[in-house]
Amino acid sequence: MQFLHTMVRVSDLDASLQFYCDLLGLKEVRRKENDKGRFTLVFLAAPEDESRSSELQAPELELTWNWDPEEYQGGRNFGHLAYRVDDIYALCQKLQDNGVTINRPPRDGHMAFVRSPDGISVELLQKGEALEPQEPWASMENTGSW
Ligand SMILES: C[C@@H](O)C(=O)SC[C@H](NC(=O)CC[C@H](N)C(=O)O)C(=O)NCC(=O)O
Ligand code: NI
């Protein structure tokens, strides 16, 4: 078995591509328009995953944009997407400078949580740090600086 993708529905495709690609750094690998179903699928991959030489497909994020507006209420059953990043401070500063909500700032240089335009939680983990936090995470207010 192989993990292929996670699908999230987005209310504004352009705003989502600006967040996931322009700001977060994911790359669009393909898209599929479906006129009959009135939706667009856009598949994104992280650069390092995308350039992976193995025959295993890179794990992808599938954005589903329904052309007819729908209300998406975030279920508590979905937690977050997680990406390992080269420089968590620089990335969070860029995200904040572009109006992205930083739910958990990277004070410890290890882990941060940000929100997509649709409120999807995205965990950012600093490359080189342990994947699981040693200390239980106490929720922290974002004071705008770290
Ligand atoms: C291409 C493959 O990875 C898919 O996931 S297609 C699955 C298909 N998606 C849609 O029909 C998109 C539009 C639909 N209105 C929606 O919002 O899902 C599908 O079966 N979706 C149902 C689901 O529960 O994912
Ligand atoms: Ni899918």
From TrEMBL:
Taxonomically, the superkingdom here is Bacteria
Keyword vocabulary terms for this entry: Lyase, Metal-binding, Nickel, Zinc
Q: Which cofactor does it need?
A: Ni(2+); Zn(2+)
Free-text cofactor note: Binds 1 zinc ion per subunit. In the homodimer, two zinc ions are bound between subunits.
Which residues are Zn(2+)-binding? E62, H80, E123
Keyword Metal-binding in record = yes
Q: Where is the active site?
A: E123 (proton donor/acceptor)
Q: Which GO terms describe its molecular function?
A: lactoylglutathione lyase activity; metal ion binding
Instruction: State the SUPFAM superfamilies in the record.
Output: Glyoxalase/Bleomycin resistance protein/Dihydroxybiphenyl dioxygenase
Record PROSITE patterns: GLYOXALASE_I_1, VOC
EC class of the enzyme, as a word: lyase
Q: What is its EC number?
A: 4.4.1.5
Limits of the VOC domain? 2-127
Q: Does the keyword Repeat apply?
A: no
- Pathway, per record: Secondary metabolite metabolism; methylglyoxal degradation; (R)-lactate from methylglyoxal: step 1/2
Q: Which family does it belong to?
A: Belongs to the glyoxalase I family.
Q: Which NCBIfam families match?
A: glyox_I
Protein name per Swiss-Prot or TrEMBL? lactoylglutathione lyase
Native species of this protein? Halomonas cupida
